[in-house]
From TrEMBL:
<comment type="similarity">
    <text>Belongs to the mTERF family.</text>
</comment>
<dbReference type="InterPro" id="IPR038538">
    <property type="entry name" value="MTERF_sf"/>
</dbReference>
<dbReference type="Pfam" id="PF02536">
    <property type="entry name" value="mTERF"/>
</dbReference>
<feature type="region of interest" description="Disordered">
    <location>
        <begin position="90"/>
        <end position="115"/>
    </location>
</feature>
<dbReference type="GO" id="GO:0003676">
    <property type="term" value="F:nucleic acid binding"/>
</dbReference>
<feature type="region of interest" description="Disordered">
    <location>
        <begin position="45"/>
        <end position="65"/>
    </location>
</feature>
<keyword id="KW-0805">Transcription regulation</keyword>
<keyword id="KW-0809">Transit peptide</keyword>
<feature type="compositionally biased region" description="Low complexity">
    <location>
        <begin position="105"/>
        <end position="115"/>
    </location>
</feature>
<keyword id="KW-0804">Transcription</keyword>
<dbReference type="InterPro" id="IPR003690">
    <property type="entry name" value="MTERF"/>
</dbReference>
<keyword id="KW-0806">Transcription termination</keyword>
<protein>
    <recommendedName>
        <fullName>PORR domain-containing protein</fullName>
    </recommendedName>
</protein>
<dbReference type="GO" id="GO:0006353">
    <property type="term" value="P:DNA-templated transcription termination"/>
</dbReference>
Length: 397
């Protein structure tokens, strides 16, 4: 019986490693070889292979009908070969991955190899079915038009509406019209003033409504009126805007009934509330305690513009009317009246008659009531020193 002959470009220790009972990891790339047994038994025959490099190359599969005697004859030879390799420092049965940089087999090799099947190629991704933007925009247009909202002007003020899904818009409209609930005219006004309400997550709107009901103590039957007066509340973040403003108005200013002034909750403390406090305290010169009293008595003063409202009215109050700033502490509603249509005309009539009415009596009353009071003051005698009118007509004299 002839000895085993193996031809391969791999090291011999790799060939003997393949004979182990446990196959090598499939993740490593390896080149399996075929062991060729040559014997003189008549039960098996080896096919002749062409010569290459001065050696005979034979390739055949092991016969399944190998007899027990043949196996017993091969076993000593294989053990002897293993001992030789082990004496040279090789471990035949320990698998060692092949080196990464090896010389590939020549393309002209005719060695018979057992090729393992390659892993299947990943299936190609399913084709992306892109929706028609024109069709999607038309569906949004038709739906919003059915609830009384015109989409075309909203796209110019809030372009993200183009990419917002129709299902999200439907869920938001349904929530606003059923939970608050807002009638179609109020819903149209809300979307027109704040189109970003249609692109906000529904969870953000729910958290705002929960804040108004639980922390600002807005009654459920007043929620529609609160949202209608200040739609910006629904688009304001609770953590960064609504709750800090609530704490400032309650803690610093001292406003107890915040549910009557919910329109202030969407204002920024740093950008809107503090500059108006500084104007009365630093520019006008009103003490800080009286400034807090002014805003506690009339919180809507936070919404007035400094340059367009507070400054011109205060300058007229001091220069033309010649009054003391203490009257503003008692009656800060003075800044809520129109300078051209109410304050100037009535002050001129009082000046012509030589009468100095208190600010509430001069500004709050209707035109008819104001003229009646003015006539009474002109036809009556001079007020007594202990009368409240003495101070407003004679000052500190």
């Amino acid at each position: 019986m002839e000895a085993l002959k193996v031809w391969s470009s791999r090291p011999r220790r790799h060939c003997f490693g393949l004979a182990s009972s446990s196959p090598p990891p499939t993740s490593e790339s390896y080149l399996p070889v075929t062991f060729i047994r040559c014997c003189s038994s008549s039960s098996t025959s080896a096919a002749a292979a062409p010569k290459q490099g001065g050696r005979d190359i034979r390739s055949s599969a092991l016969s399944t009908s190998t007899s027990t005697s043949d196996i017993n004859a091969i076993h000593p030879i294989r053990l002897k070969k293993v001992e030789e390799l082990r004496s040279k420092g090789f471990e035949p049965y320990a698998y060692s991955p092949p080196p990464e940089h090896h010389h590939p087999l020549p393309s002209s090799s005719k060695t018979s190899l057992i090729s393992l099947p390659l892993p299947p190629k990943p299936a190609p991704p399913p084709p992306i079915t892109a929706t028609n933007p024109t069709t999607d925009l038309q569906e949004k247009l038709f739906y919003l038009d059915s609830v009384g909202i015109d989409l075309i002007p909203l796209l110019t003020t809030h372009p993200p509406l183009i990419t917002t899904s129709l299902s999200h818009i439907k869920s938001t409209i349904t929530f606003l019209s059923t939970t608050i609930p807002l009638p179609p005219p109020a819903l149209n006004r809300l979307v027109s003033l704040c189109p970003e309400i249609l692109t906000l997550p529904l969870s953000s709107i729910i958290s705002t409504i929960t804040f108004l009901l639980r922390e600002a103590h807005v009654r459920s039957h007043h929620l529609r009126r609160v949202i209608h007066r200040r739609p910006r509340l629904l688009t304001s973040d609770v953590k960064t805007r609504l709750r800090p403003t609530l704490y400032f108005l309650q803690g610093t200013i001292g406003i107890s009934e915040i549910n009557k002034h919910t329109h202030l909750l969407s204002c920024s403390v740093e950008d809107k509330l503090l500059p108006r406090i500084e104007y009365f305290n630093e520019n006008i010169g009103i003490p800080y305690s009286d400034t807090m009293l002014i805003f506690r008595r009339f919180p809507s003063l936070f919404c007035y513009s400094i340059k367009e409202n507070l400054e011109p009215k205060f300058n007229y109050f001091v220069v033309e009317m010649g009054r003391d700033s203490r009257e503003l502490v008692e009656f800060p509603q003075y800044f809520s009246f129109s300078l051209e249509n109410r304050i100037k005309p009535r002050h001129r009539r009082c000046s012509e008659k030589g009468v100095c009415l208190p600010l509430p009596a001069m500004l709050r009353s209707s035109e008819k009531r104001f003229l009646e009071r003015l006539e009474v003051c002109c036809d009556s005698s001079m007020p007594m020193r202990n009368s409240p009118f003495w101070y407003y007509t004679h000052g500190d004299d």
